[in-house]
Amino acid sequence: MEETSREAVATAVQRVAGMLQRSDQLDKVEQYRRREARKKASVEARLKAAIQSQLDGVRTGLTQLHSALLDVKDIQSSLADVSKDWRQSINTIENLKDVKDAVVQHSQLASAVENLKNIFSVPEIVAETQQLIEQADLLQAHRKLIELECSRDDLMYEQYRMDSRNTSDMNLISIYFEDVQGLSDELAKQLWMVLQRSMLTVRRDPTMLVSVVRIIEREEKIDRRMVDRKKQTGFIPPGRPKRWKDKMFQVLEGTVSTRIEGTQSVTREADKMWLVRLLEITRKYVLDDLIVVKNLMVQSIQLHIHVQEGMMGHPELHSECDINKLEPLLPRDVVDDLLSKYVKTFTSNITGWLRKALETDKKDWQKETEPEADQDGYYQTTLPAIVFQMFEQNLQVAAQIDGDFKEQVLKLCLKQMNTFLLRYKEEAVVYKEDHLRERKLPQCYVQYMIAIINNCQTFKESINSLKRKYSQSSVATDSDAAIERTLNEVAKEGCQFLLDEVFLDLENHLNELLTRKWLTGSHAVDTICVTVEDYFNDFNKIKKPYNQEMTSEALRRVVVEYVKAVMQKRITFKNADERREGAERMIKEADQFKFLFRKLAAGEDTDRLCGAIAAIAEVFKLTDPTLLFLEVTTLVSKYPDIREEHIQALLAVRGDASREMRQMIIGTLSENKVSYSGVTQPIFKDITVPTITMTSMTSMATAKLLK
């Protein structure tokens, strides 16, 4: 111990000698002494803090063990109570059987009341349906038939649920609706009749054939729904599944067979050339029918006959010669001139088309009904589909000319797309500004702004699809980069507009934070959390990755606004009790934010951002002012973007830090400043601390004099 003391004294002497090597350094003795005193105080504070931390840890551990023991006893007692209540409730559950039966009966009666109108009007609807079938109004007849079947099936299902073994009531319902099955059979006969004469029908009344196919598709959907319900409940209505689609193919197959068999007009015995005649007649009939199918039938039917076209040798179905061996019909210069005119016309037309498409989309933004959603539930408008349908049609034409011209038209489309997106971005900004002038209008502003954001992702996917389909080059062009940049800007600004909408609603509650009202009891943070969660129920309709980025930005803005409230020094704590109460409220509210944004999946930065509020609270909560330096150092190490004025503001809000203490903390931190790498998301970087102006100082002084 003595040797250590001697070494310390020797080291001190050596340091003092190093400091006082020149006479002019004697003037700085007092400065050196204060600096050494600060260092000594800092070391002592750290040692004291380390010991205090160890003691606090042991105390906390003992407290938690005691609390855990009490919790185990409480749980043990609660489990005993639950077991006792469960035994007592067994008899009660058995007594509820009558209530259960009453509920089932009520459900059956409710279904009967719901279908009462249709039940009483069954004979009338049956007669109307029969008349519609006779008039060949098949779609209307099918609609009436579905109404009758739904009423019957609902009643039977409720009866089945109440008592599946009661066949007498089931038979009563079946007898009352017995005409419905007859109508279904009669309608089916009409459908098969139309299909048997499909080649004639498609010439005279093609809409009739379309109606038949639509009716069969509807019945197939009902069949699938009823089969699924049978798997769940065991009930399936009479006559289901109808399997009309299978019957349709059987009828068509029979029609084709009959058509071919009917062409045999002679036999082997009557004419030796009977096979030649049969094949020639068959060829003629099949050829005529295929031409009708190709020109009049729907596209899906055409696809099935393309395989056969090459064997028919008809110019309307297939080319008989190799066009690659033919000379060009027009000279090259004439072709180039025509293509040049086409490009000019196309450029002019597509500019007009895009302008009209955007104007139409803007009108939709003012609607009082929500935009449509895609199959995944994300809001969207029809704008991307309309735009890329234009591009697709023109690229299909260009592809028929040659590959180079196709590439030229694609580049032109992308160039026009970039110009169009810049206008789209401007219109989105105008839409937001108009809304801010009158926030109640448009009624569905939030939903259509979400659709605008989602359209950006749809535009990206459609552009990539066009490039894969019509371009042989994989090299990115200037237009590609510009389009990508503009779409990202539109989406980012749209998300920002929506967050601005949220924070406009939160403004009054944010202004209430860290005030006297907040300290004495305020529900500001509760309201903030409820409001944010309510908005994000709508924001779930935003596509990835924009929804994730928006949630992260919402968390950052909430935390920044909270920290900003601290830095504005709206409150100065008067004593230790106020500091403790305020700190505990801040920690609780940080946990509220953390719970909310974890629920919203804000990302990995949630704990760090919310932890900033808790870290500031620890500075306020500290009871020993001599340990302030250590607590502030911890805060700075976690959040290196914090500045000197922020620390000054925190100490001012704390209310008990002396001027010497503040100077010591700021001075020491300045000497050991932590550099900010910018890797993590900043919190304090954009938060300014308000300065006291001469006017406000004069006002404060006047107020003190008046007191």
Describe this structure in words.
By secondary structure, this protein is mainly alpha-helical. It is 76% helix and 0% strand. The chain has 27 helices and no strands. Helix 3 (97-114) runs antiparallel to helix 6 and helix 22 runs antiparallel to helix 23. The protein is extended, with a radius of gyration of 41 Å. Residues 301-308 and 693-707 have low confidence and may be disordered. InterPro entries: EXOC3/Sec6 (IPR010326), EXOC3/Sec6_C (IPR042532). Keywords: Acetylation, Cell projection, Cytoplasm, Exocytosis, Golgi apparatus, Protein transport, Transport. The exocyst complex is composed of EXOC1, EXOC2, EXOC3, EXOC4, EXOC5, EXOC6, EXOC7 and EXOC8. Interacts with EXOC3L1. Interacts with BIRC6/bruce. Interacts with MYRIP. Interacts with SLC6A9.
List keywords for this structure.
707 residues; single chain; mainly alpha; 27 helices; disordered C terminus; transport
Summarize the structure.
The protein is mainly α and 707 residues long. The chain is built from 27 helices and no strands. It is found in: Cell projection, Growth cone; Cytoplasm, Perinuclear region; Golgi apparatus; Midbody.
Proportion of residues in helical segments: over 70%
What is the terminal separation in angstroms? 60 Å
Low-confidence stretches: 301-308, 693-707
Number of helices: 27
**Rg, alpha carbons:** 41 Å
Q: Care to count the β-strands?
A: 0
Multimeric organization: single chain
Determine the mean pLDDT. Answer: 82
SSE pattern: HHHHHHHHHHHHHHHHHHHHHHHHHHH
